Amino acid sequence: MRHDRPLHTSASQLACFASCPRKYEYRYVEQREPEHRSTALALGSAVHGAVAWWFDEKIAARTPDVGDALKILHADLTAALTYPNVNWRGESQESLLADGEKLLRLFLDKHGDLPVIATEVRFDMPIVDPDTGETMPRPCTGFLDLGACRANSRAGDRHLDRGPYLMAHGEGLPAVRHRSATASAA
User: Fold this and answer.
1) What is the pLDDT of residues 72-125, one digit of tens each?
2) CB 3.0–4.6 Å: which of 59, 102, 139, 158 could bond 124 by disulfide?
3) pLDDT tens, 18-67?
4) How far is CA 160 from its chain centroid?
5) What is the per-residue DSSP string for the chain?
6) In whole angstroms, what is the distance from residue 85 CA to residue 1 CA?
7) Could you tell me which residues come within 8 angstroms of residue 181 by beta carbon, excluding any fewer than 6 positions away?
């Protein structure tokens, strides 16, 4: 059992601590393996990886191919589902791969041409006690999925009109449950 404090604090850590301090202790301080692995987490991580690859290719001035993005999705999801303690909840690897393909195609059809200039943009910000104004000793660290350019609506072309901006969930890219999204794509 490890009992070191994490070097930074993340939004996930704060949410975990707020929902269950014991779970936080097990996961982040003692670094225990989870009893079960979630298929939803495996699916989301695999789709996320394929989307990041897509935009990294575009940033490198290469033309990404949907077929290659699907291969990455399949490889990542298959690897994530090989753990012995996957909580399947009535799903199968085949159904998750099919859902992942639908999600990835849906995302790329709708957002594959975003003017992305960076992926996985790290941020560090101070955590400030709202009552005392004291800055906590550890920063909040995280990653924003995409950094993009704003479109210039007057000229119709894309360029940095006010500098880059970062997109997180809720800014034009809604986070949806995969069942809802794949059902509407079918």
Assistant:
1) 999 999 998 887 888 788 888 999 999 999 999 999 999 999 888 888 888 888
2) 139
3) 999 999 898 888 888 888 888 888 999 999 999 999 999 999 999 999 99
4) 25
5) ---PPPSSB-HHHHHHHHH-HHHHIIIIIS-PPPSSEEHHHHHHHHHHHHHHHHHHHHHTT----HHHHHHHHHHHHHHHTTSTTEE-TT--HHHHHHHHHHHHHHHHHHHTT--EEEEEEEEEE--B-TTT-PBPSS-EEEEEEEEEPPB-TTT-SB--SS--EEE-TTSSS----HHHHHHHH-
6) 20
7) 102, 103, 106
Cβ proximity of 172 and 146 under 8 Å? no
Q: CA 7, CA 20: separation in Å to the nearest integer?
A: 20
Burial class (CB in 10 A: 0-12, 13-18, 19+), 25: middle
The span from the CA of 83 to the CA of 86, in Å, is: 6
